[in-house]
Specification:
The protein is mainly alpha-helical and about 425 residues long. Helix 6 (about 100-120) crosses helix 7 (about 140-160). The N and C termini lie far apart (about 55 Å). The chain has a two-stranded antiparallel ribbon with strand order 1-2. It has helices at about 15-25, 35-50, 60-65, 70-75, 80-100, 100-120, 140-160, 160-175, 205-220, 225-240, 265-275, 280-300, 345-355, and strands spanning about 140, 190, 305, 330, 395, 400, 410, 415.
Length: about 425
C-alpha cells in the first residue's frame, strides 16, 4: 500500500487556491499542443461539478470549447491520432454530464464513432484493439483505455447498448493482451504484434485513464470486480511511482517531454472518479489522504508565488503571456523546488487541486459568477509566428502550415518542400 497520511489541514482552502490559480489561466495566450486543449476542458468543468454547480466561473471558456468533428479533424491534418481525438470525446461527455448541453454529447458520440470506425482492428488480430493512428502500426494502451472509458460513459449517458458492446470488446482486448500486469498492477504502454504487453511501464496516465474506465464500467454494470481492479491499479501507482515520502513522480522526470507534463494530472483526475464511487469509508479516507499529500507537497515546495510576482510567470513556445505577470505557478516535479513554469504542468497541478476539492464544497460571493469574455476567434497568419523554432511557416490563400524540420517553404506555391 502507498503511504497513508492524515488529510492536510489546509484542504478546506483548496477551492481558494484553485480560484487564485485560475487567474493564471485567464491570461494565458494559448496552449502549446492540440490534445491538451481538449483535455483541459475536463479539468475546468470538474471544478464546476465539485463545487456543486454553485460556481459559473469560466463557463464561457467551457461553452466556447465546443468544436464539431470536422473542425477538430481539420485542425490537425491530415488526421489526428485517435488518442488526441479521444481527449475531446471524454471532455465533451463530461461537460454534457455537468451542464447538460446536448451539443457536447452529440460531438462526443461523433468522436467515438469516428475513432471506432477507422481505429478498431476489424481483422480480429489479438482480439481487435484500437490502433494508435491511421498509420496502423501500433496499438497503444492509452487509446484503448480512453475509448473503454468513453464507451462506458456514453452507454451510461445514452442507454445505447452498442456502446456497452464496444466497451466489453475493448476490455476483452485489454485482458487478452495482458496490458494490466495482474501481479504488480502496473499498466503496460502498449501491445506487441505477438499479442503480449510491450513491458514498457512508464506513463502514469495509462493507469489513470484505465482505472477511470473501470470506474465507469462499475457504474453501468455494478460488477464489483471492475471497481476492485481499479483500486488495485491506484495502489500499483502508489507502490511503484511514488518516492519515499509518498509523492508521485513521473518516470521521465526531470526530462519529460511536453506531453508527459500532463500525465500526473490525468492520473489524479481519474483517481477522483474512483474515490467518488468508493463506499468503504477506510478506503475513501486512504485515497483522499494520498491526494491531499500531493496538494501539500506542491503548495509547500513547488509553488512560485513570490513578491514581486513578476518572477512567477508562464513560459510559452510561441511567445510571452498577454500579461507578463501571473503566479502562482508550478513546475513539473511535485516534490519541488520550483524551477520553470509552462502551460502543461500548470494544468497537471490544476487537475490535482480540483480533484482534491472536498465533497459538499460550494462557491459563495460575487466572484463565483466571474466569467471573463472570450475574444472572437481570429485566423492566425505567418506574421503571428505560429510555428515552433526551426520550422518554416508556409502561407497560401489566407491559410498556413508549419513545415517539418528539414523542409522549407516555397513562397510562390505555399507548399513545404
Amino acid at each position: 500500500m502507498g503511504l497513508l497520511r492524515p488529510v492536510a489541514s489546509f484542504n478546506k482552502n483548496n477551492t481558494y487556491n484553485i480560484c487564485i490559480f485560475f487567474l493564471v489561466l485567464q491570461i494565458w495566450n494559448g496552449y502549446d499542443g492540440f490534445w491538451q486543449n481538449g483535455a483541459v476542458l475536463e479539468t475546468m468543468v470538474n471544478f464546476l461539478a465539485y463545487t456543486g454547480n454553485t460556481s459559473r466561473r469560466y463557463n464561457s471558456v467551457i461553452q466556447n470549447g465546443l468544436r464539431d468533428l470536422y473542425s477538430l479533424l481539420e485542425a490537425y491534418g491530415p488526421y489526428p491520432s485517435f488518442d488526441d481525438m479521444a481527449w475531446y470525446g471524454l471532455s465533451y461527455a463530461r461537460i454534457y454530464e455537468v451542464i447538460n448541453n446536448d451539443q457536447f454529447l452529440q460531438t462526443s458520440e461523433d468522436i467515438f464513432n469516428w475513432c471506432w470506425k477507422l481505429g478498431w482492428d476489424k481483422t480480429g488480430t489479438c482480439g481487435g484493439g484500437v490502433w494508435f493512428d491511421t498509420n496502423y502500426e501500433s496499438k497503444q494502451t492509452i487509446t484503448n483505455a480512453q475509448l473503454l472509458q468513453l464507451a462506458a460513459k456514453l452507454y451510461r449517458l445514452t442507454n445505447n447498448t452498442s456502446y456497452k458492446t464496444k466497451m466489453n470488446q475493448i476490455y476483452e482486448y485489454v485482458i487478452k493482451n495482458g496490458l494490466i500486469n495482474m501481479t504488480s498492477y502496473k499498466v503496460s504502454d502498449g501491445a506487441t504484434v505477438n499479442c503480449t504487453p510491450d513491458d514498457i511501464y512508464g506513463p502514469t496516465y495509462n493507469a489513470g485513464v484505465m482505472l477511470g474506465g473501470l470506474a465507469e464500467m462499475y457504474k453501468v454494470t455494478n460488477i464489483t470486480g471492475y471497481y476492485e481492479l481499479g483500486y488495485k491499479l491506484a495502489n500499483g501507482i502508489f507502490d511503484n511511482y511514488c518516492d519515499g515520502n509518498g509523492i508521485l513522480v513521473e518516470p521521465c522526470e526531470p526530462n519529460c517531454d511536453d506531453d508527459a507534463l500532463m500525465y500526473k494530472g490525468i492520473f489524479v483526475r481519474n483517481l477522483r472518479y474512483l474515490i467518488d464511487i468508493t463506499d468503504d469509508p477506510a478506503r475513501k479516507i486512504y485515497l483522499t489522504s494520498w491526494l491531499n499529500l500531493q496538494v501539500e507537497s506542491n503548495l509547500e515546495h513547488n509553488m512560485c508565488f513570490k513578491v514581486p510576482i513578476k518572477e512567477c510567470n508562464i513560459t510559452f513556445k510561441d511567445g510571452p503571456p498577454f500579461f507578463n505577470i501571473s503566479g502562482p505557478v508550478f513546475s513539473q516535479d511535485w516534490r519541488g523546488p520550483f524551477s520553470r513554469g509552462n502551460p502543461m504542468q500548470q494544468t497537471s497541478v490544476l487537475d490535482l487541486l480540483t480533484s482534491a476539492i472536498k465533497p459538499g464544497t460550494v462557491c459563495k460571493g460575487i466572484f463565483c459568477s466571474y466569467d471573463p469574455p472570450v475574444p472572437s476567434p481570429r485566423s492566425l497568419t505567418c506574421n503571428d509566428f505560429p510555428c515552433p523554432s526551426g520550422q518554416d511557416c508556409c502561407e497560401y490563400n489566407n491559410s498556413y502550415t508549419c513545415c517539418a524540420k528539414g523542409q522549407h517553404c516555397n513562397n510562390s506555391t505555399g507548399i513545404c518542400e
